[in-house]
Design a protein that fits this description.
With 437 residues, this protein is an alpha/beta fold. It is 46% helix and 11% strand. It binds D-xylose and calcium ion (2 copies).
Length: 437
């Protein structure tokens, strides 16, 4: 029996449609810049928010009913979540999902019992995957909720807890491989510190890297051929998290020789928490060959925390897709790490959130393609650096000069032109023209 029985199959109806259960912009089969929309935008459902989060916040209990007709905390509930999740993805045409180990089953005190539950549920999920063609984008282990991880997982001061983290990663990797997942994520939720008075940063970072190396060794041994990802976030829950932003995470990966196996999973809301734009984080990742996957959501700049809202900012989605197209697409996908607001507590709103997010990224793709095809932005950027196309400029770029030679050139100049204008307002006008013209 259907769980979302009142919700129809969500289809593309076009920009004039007033049907809340239809896409206005996401047209899966439409070709944009040589690729189908659905291939540019491999969307994924986040198990934890969509099937788990029910509105609890620091000041109040659940507002939404995510029991799906079963008693929470039971294996029956774990199964109805699977049923709900696959029905949900099928109705929206979403082809991927992402999960943490503890999203799938209730965690027991004894890890052997938890693992047996994971074996049972993963058989059930695998059967549904075969039946529907839905795939796994990435898996991860939740190494931040349980009190054992209060001082971190890889960065913990307890060798036993470090082993527990290893055990969870091992199992989550087993599941990711069982599902044929494309990626495996490390989000360092508690890998950071509150005060340096009690923290050995070097020790902790070395241990995190050690754990990641162990994960890579094991993953490759059991046939995981996908990418490992770090998902940067500057703070929350810790005051200072080690994976602050893309640049920091890339430096860490290179420092510890992990850069061949890892890429980044960039979350929009984490970028803004780090004081960057989403586009900045994508650009830094892309130019370093590290753009792997995206957690598609949006924060609220008036709030200083991770609100995980469904993305509706079309400017931000456009600049994201501009980076993605230029990077030649993603090897990962677009995971909606987003949840309904606490007062949006109905099944209908679960769908409306995803329709909003998918339409926003479809619009972003359409506008970004237009921006690239228009060419004025790219032409301007090329022109801006054109003084390096001269013989001298080329020498500098190619590393064929010396400081003395350059100083000699400067000494011969009678006057120096101010560099070419940045033309920011003009370019912003072009962007608006593309957005609304
Ligand atoms: C939390 C993170 C988390 C990761 C997966 O802020 O976004 O949900 O995506 O552990
Ligand atoms: Ca995330
Ligand atoms: Ca987040």
């Amino acid at each position: 029996m259907a769980i979302f029985e009142n919700i129809p199959q969500i289809k593309y109806e076009g920009a004039d449609s007033k049907n809340p259960f239809a896409f206005k912009f996401y047209d899966a089969e439409k070709v944009v810049m040589g690729k189908k929309m659905k291939d540019y935008l491999p969307f994924a459902m986040a198990w934890w928010h969509n099937l788990g989060a029910a509105g609890t916040d620091m000041f109040g209990r659940d507002t939404a009913d995510k029991s799906f007709g079963a008693e929470k905390g039971t294996m029956e509930h774990a199964k109805t979540k699977v049923d709900a999740g696959f029905e949900f993805m099928q109705k929206l045409g979403i082809e991927y999902f992402c999960f943490h180990d503890v999203d799938l089953v209730p965690e027991a005190d004894d890890i052997n019992i938890t693992n047996a539950r994971l074996d049972e549920i993963s058989d059930y999920i695998l059967a549904k995957m075969k039946e529907t063609g839905i795939k796994c984008l990435w898996g991860t282990a939740n190494m931040f909720s349980n009190p054992r991880f209060m001082n971190g997982a890889g960065s913990t001061n307890s060798a036993d807890v470090f082993c527990f983290a290893a055990a969870q990663i091992k199992k989550a990797l087993d599941l990711t491989v069982k599902f044929g997942g494309k990626g495996y994520v490390f989000w360092g939720g508690r890998e950071g510190y509150e005060t340096l008075l009690n923290t050995d940063v070097k020790f902790e970072q070395e241990n995190i890297a050690r754990l990641m190396h162990l994960a890579v060794d094991y993953g490759r041994k059991i046939g995981f051929t996908g990418d490992f990802y770090i998902e940067p976030k500057p703070k929350e829950p810790m005051k200072h998290q080690y994976d602050f932003d893309a640049a920091t995470a890339i430096g860490f990966l290179r420092q510890y020789g992990l850069d061949r196996d890892f890429k980044l999973n960039i979350e929009a809301n984490h970028a803004t928490l780090a004081g960057h734009t989403f586009q900045h984080e994508l650009r830094v990742s892309a130019i370093n060959g590290m753009l792997g996957s995206i957690d598609a959501n949006q924060g609220d700049c008036l709030l200083g925390w991770d609100t995980d809202e469904f993305p509706f900012d079309v400017y931000e989605a456009t600049m994201c897709m501009y980076e993605v197209i230029k990077a030649g697409g993603l090897t990962g996908g677009f995971n909606f790490d987003a949840k309904n607001r606490r007062s949006s507590n109905t099944y209908e709103e679960m769908f409306e959130g995803y329709i909003l997010g998918m339409d926003t990224f479809a619009l972003g793709l359409i506008k970004a393609a237009k921006l690239i095809e228009d060419g004025r932005i790219d032409e301007f950027v090329k022109e801006k650096y054109s003084s390096f196309d001269t013989e001298l400029g080329k020498k500098i770029r190619e590393g064929n000069t010396t400081l003395e030679e350059l100083a000699g050139h400067a000494a011969e100049l009678k006057s120096i032109d101010t560099p070419m204008s940045g033309k920011q307002e003009k370019l912003e006008g072009i962007l608006n023209q593309i957005m609304f013209g």
